[in-house]
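#struct-pred

JT: dropping the chains for the assembly here, can someone run the whole complex?
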Amino acid sequence: MTRMRYAEALNRALHEEMARDERVCVIGEDVGIYGGVFKVTKGLRERFGDLRVRDTPISEQAMTGLAIGAAMVGRRPVLEIMYIDFLTLCLDQLVNQASIVHYIWAGQASLPFVLRTQGGAGAGAAAQHSKSLDALVAHVPGLKVVAPATPADASGLLVAAIRDPNPVVFLEHKLLYNTTGEVPEGDHVVPIGQAHVAREGTDITIVASSKMTLDALAAAETLAAEGIDAEVVDLRTLRPLDRETIARSVRKTNRALVVNEGWTTGGFGAELSAVIMEDAFDWLDGPVRRLGTADRPIPYSLPLEQAAVPDAAAITRAARLTLAG
Amino acid sequence: MTRMRYAEALNRALHEEMARDERVCVIGEDVGIYGGVFKVTKGLRERFGDLRVRDTPISEQAMTGLAIGAAMVGRRPVLEIMYIDFLTLCLDQLVNQASIVHYIWAGQASLPFVLRTQGGAGAGAAAQHSKSLDALVAHVPGLKVVAPATPADASGLLVAAIRDPNPVVFLEHKLLYNTTGEVPEGDHVVPIGQAHVAREGTDITIVASSKMTLDALAAAETLAAEGIDAEVVDLRTLRPLDRETIARSVRKTNRALVVNEGWTTGGFGAELSAVIMEDAFDWLDGPVRRLGTADRPIPYSLPLEQAAVPDAAAITRAARLTLAG
Amino acid sequence: MRNAPSAEDIARMYRQMLVVRAVEEQLAVLHRQGKTRGPIHTCIGQEAAGIGATAPLEREDVVTSTHRGHAHFVGKGLDLRRVLAEIFGRVTGYCRGRGGHMLVASAADGLLGGNGIVGGGIPIALGQAFGFQLDGSRRVAVAIFGDGAAQEGTCHEAMNVAGLWKLPMVFFCEHNLYGLTVHARYQSSVPDLHVRAAGYGMPGVMVDGNDLLAVHGAMRDALDRARRGDGPTFVEAKTYRMTGFSTSDMGGYQPEEEMREWAARDPIARTRALLATMLDESSLEAVERAAAEEVEAAFAQAMADPFPDAAELDAPEYAVAEARP
Amino acid sequence: MRNAPSAEDIARMYRQMLVVRAVEEQLAVLHRQGKTRGPIHTCIGQEAAGIGATAPLEREDVVTSTHRGHAHFVGKGLDLRRVLAEIFGRVTGYCRGRGGHMLVASAADGLLGGNGIVGGGIPIALGQAFGFQLDGSRRVAVAIFGDGAAQEGTCHEAMNVAGLWKLPMVFFCEHNLYGLTVHARYQSSVPDLHVRAAGYGMPGVMVDGNDLLAVHGAMRDALDRARRGDGPTFVEAKTYRMTGFSTSDMGGYQPEEEMREWAARDPIARTRALLATMLDESSLEAVERAAAEEVEAAFAQAMADPFPDAAELDAPEYAVAEARP
Ligand SMILES: Cc1ncc(C[n+]2csc(CCOP(=O)(O)OP(=O)(O)O)c2C)c(N)n1
Ligand SMILES: Cc1ncc(C[n+]2csc(CCOP(=O)(O)OP(=O)(O)O)c2C)c(N)n1
Ligand SMILES: [Mg+2]
Ligand SMILES: [Mg+2]
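RK: done, full complex below.
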């Protein structure tokens, strides 16, 4: 185990996978000479050369297609899209091209590529640089979507994503890059599709992912002081969703709060609520509660942004209401 | 009242609104000389000229921006995007631009434009021309999303959409264009944001929209023959959602099936399920059931496409299961 | 100049052109009989362009095609029966009937693949070329697209990257004067699209797209250039769609005089006239008979082939192992 | 050639340039003191381009700006205090603090608006120009964007439409040699972007972007052309960002020699030298003092202004009536 930052864990995984497999290449805006605006691709160009680590023009559509095409002929590209807000520019290639190839071509080709991006609010980056658009990709058959909360999971899931023969959308969070945690040595792989109980508890299940997992864990401590024992399920993967782990937890606690940083309406929290409805209705002592970002474009000014986006305090309040519901 | 096809009802609404308000203009691929590939814009160019009715290059991104910019300076553009599948190309302009202007600029501008498009399967149009991507836009604050099922609602909602000072995504369905129904004469406006009980019933609520409403009504007839009295709520508007009407119905019937033609996972059906959970949990005698398209790219071959997409028979089966649940 | 193709080469291409023409004429007949499903786009009149662009390719070169790909499928050597089976949704089709007419793909033949998203295949070809450059191979990626597609952002982004990175790629534009029903004069700010190549650091070439040898020669030059590592070429083939946009075209927008003018330049007649200077009439007739027989046999087989079982819908959403061309 | 601007005009623009420079230098200081929030992009070294592009505009002309818009805000006549208040998230800001640094907009001044999506404003300007053309007005829409943005698909699509429809529009490209941290040689297939204009049926002009009069003159010509109904112009201003990309830039990628070379061409020094041939030293100093005082006062006011109340988050998602510039 080594203690490191989330960004470092990702960087290490990239170094290791590029060294391990010559087919892995890294492309994106500012990923080469500068090492990425969040420094996740630091040192890769120096080590692996400017053919395998390529600074690209600002052309997200073409870059997504580039990743698809390169994967189709045997490469394993890792594409960095600087902000998840720009995923809207990649979506045609993801939805109409990447997601269909394996199934529609009846298995003639697989597309082993990773689209790394980062989202989330809290940095005063305003309406076009703070969103959490996970719902847009988690809806699409053929894509996998992961959203690790810890350095260990970031590293292990990135390795798994690079080795996966499918397109994987890899969601990081701008406020997680500087968080630290222990990361196992050696060939550390976290399988895609497995949620994980980050904290055991008996009174309520809080389902979360990415930064919301950390906030949920903090909320659980506050709740514990009030005598409420919360279980926190960290999804880690949004698609394919580990319904089993969620259902098992809710069947135990009989109460559920689902937290997702995307906009509440039509967000991934809706999917979680529906899944609990379907898999654990008879065990529920009250309605599943949803917590997400307010249904507004994310405002810049600090008091407004803080009011818009869930944090540990908001989760704590929502958990109390869930138990009262 | 006049009996007409859904496509004709839309066409009439466009004619009337263009005649009524000089600011209304129509843009899109093949909307002018040809009158639209579904003939919804027929006769407009001849009548209103080629400045107000413009055939455009195949440039969906720019066309969406064009609608935004023209709306910003006082026009009321109606943009046709030929297939909803291409909405992925419009999404950046919709999500990062159109949806934020009113709120983020603190009311300095409104964007009165309509993006008309059509979706849905059943025509053998395959994976890139058969989707129902309503979930992608219904998630976005600042956009309105409507999906009429009948000629009367198509006409009345299109008029409302054109007169609305916000961006409205107007979802048609390729298999509805040739369906017929009575359309009121005169200034027929159906307010955005109001669902409507298309069939009253006492045993189960089926929530649907667009073509699924017709299928749900057909299913209700079959169910009636079995002694099951289904209520069908036709949403008409997906965003802002009329939660009231849904809740009222479910509180009466105590059972709910939500039907949406989009992919099931992360689809708009999830939002409906979550909303019922939140607004009517205590009235539910069993879990809300979701019915959507199979979580696969939509296959071409008839037996596969039929198996993938919900129809009246699938709704009937799902309703029975809901009551058994 | 390189050696011109031999009489034998030309006869082979002539036969391919005849096959394409016969296939499409037969599809139109079957459409009228209600025996096809979904729209079918024919390239009648464009066979010299489509065959001239694909016949000079080596098997390991790859092509991204369009919604109008029959000539590319034949030129790239696909098995006609399996192409037709795909068009008829049979399990013996290249994609087991999942793709349909617009999504035919044959990984083994480097046809990767048809595409229903206008401009959607261009960035994928870019990625394939990028993969080949990384491999240091002599493979070339050919993006085929229409004059309408050239107005999509993807085309521009891909041209810039290809020119910048000197990728082994050919942009082959079939300029048939129309994008769906709209004449190029309403779609393009310039009549000749190859002039844009200068803005992307690559040569732009224009050829008479109804002159098989001209297309073939331009394509060979472009391929040589790409294999030498000198980068991409933009080839614009001026041609004409002698029929409607698709089998669902209601017509009325192609002026009769224009149709007549182009009929006089029918590439099949022209290629026959050319061959007649090299082969005697009976050899020509033998070629024609062979083509007709090939087509007849392929239709007979394909239409007798079985549909996939509905249960195939559940084929895996994800690849479990890498599969590639 | 038209009359050159008077000494008074130049002095006014010089003062605007000084204001921009002083604002940005002060923002950098405040950033280091932790008193700003989110990234702030400065245009130090580019003031002649930004002011030269916007100062010749009439009030009813409109500008879509970028993430680096301070010069445009000042050149278009916005109130500095309200610009700064927006940057500091105050309720007195143009967007009541909701927009922040990248999303300043002033409908009354035709600044519509800043934009954090690279290339995102270009199609919106296209739509504004389309609206003006429909109105038959003499207003012009100016899209300002960087050399990086010119590689986005939106730029190409918009150029094609503008050239095709002869819209009253100017494409003003601030070519500052970098897109974020990546040098143009890694982003653009051609060193000069104005050469692309030929592919879109519009004139392309290149000017020394650090020469205020050259920019101003090119812009006036372009505006005249647009007002005459002759269509768009692409103006490329070659300039340089004398500082990092934003306040969060970690540097290291701009070679010292390059920095030195461009420092010698500092547009402020050059404009001062030019003015010194027209005005005496004390007049110049008066201008400089006035600029400094204006900036100081604006900062003092803006930073004393209140934040919005958190409850403002709930401001309406939708417009209820039309509002427009
Ligand atoms: C992104 C997208 N926009 C629009 C369409 C609808 N459409 C299909 S083919 C076509 C015309 C394409 O014109 P061109 O590229 O010239 O090809 P051609 O049909 O002439 O061969 C259009 C508009 C589509 N399939 N995809
Ligand atoms: C669509 C999109 N892609 C990427 C970014 C991240 N980004 C912000 S500014 C920038 C560089 C833009 O370069 P250029 O257009 O030359 O403008 P400059 O910063 O040089 O003024 C990038 C890549 C973004 N904001 N939007
Ligand atoms: Mg064409
Ligand atoms: Mg730049």
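JT: nice. Chain D has ten helices and seven strands. The pocket of thiamine diphosphate (ligand 2) is lined by residues A 29, 58, 60, 82, 86, 89; D 67-68, 116-118, 145-149, 174, 176, 178-180 (CB under 6 Å).
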